[in-house]
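batch job 7 of whatever, protein = EGF-like domain-containing protein
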Amino acid sequence: MFGRQVFGLMVMSSVVFSMSQKLLMDFEGSTPPPGYCEHSGEWKDGKCQCTKAYTGDRCEIEKCTNGGRLYSVKGKGAQTKCHCPFGLSGDRCENVTYCEPGKGKLVNGKCECSDRWTGLFCQIRSCYNGISPSGLEGHCLCDLGYTGPFCDIPLICENGGEVNDNNECSCSTGYTGERCEDCSVGYIQEGRYCVPEVSESSLLAHTGSLGNRPFAWPIVLMGCAAAIALVVLAMTVIFAVRKWSAKPSRVNSVQGDPENGTDV
């Protein structure tokens, strides 16, 4: 009697095992029972597709956050723990324990960052018109037309300058400086503009055309006035000499005219 009971239990166990194996094999080509994939996982292509926060055959294992490394606890079966990076703690590295000095403060396991700082530890600059790519140690790479530590200052080139592909000002001829605000070497400030600096000895050679250099005309006019004055003076002298030469000699007037018989 006892032997028959044992035999019956063995048969039932074999049947249950076969059915479970068949059920698992059927999952490969069909949909498993509802809830088989845990934590909102979905059955697709013969396996559970887990959400970002979970892993495992049935999405039963919660991942580590903030770059933590997941490992299995020895002697604890399927139990897992997280090895957290510096500045983080908690079962899944969800708690912050460190903030960058002077850039944020720790409040309830999170960093409250100061103005213009962001990131898990307040280690990243808030770039208003640009990005803070990895490898630049928190510095901003500004968009064209902006500058400053936080890319919040418009880059305006003065005196006709333009922003180039290096996010710098390309200045017009005669101008230099970060914003094209200064005169280049060989140019001087005249009012709002920078003009070529020209010496008197090279005035005509440098200007080429007097019509394009108004400041040269006073010199020309002074030269013309001097020439006219010299001509007038010369004509006056010549006229005076001729007039003096045309007067009769006083000697002839006193001695008389022999041909007319005039006695002295």
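notes: The chain is about 25% helix and 20% strand.
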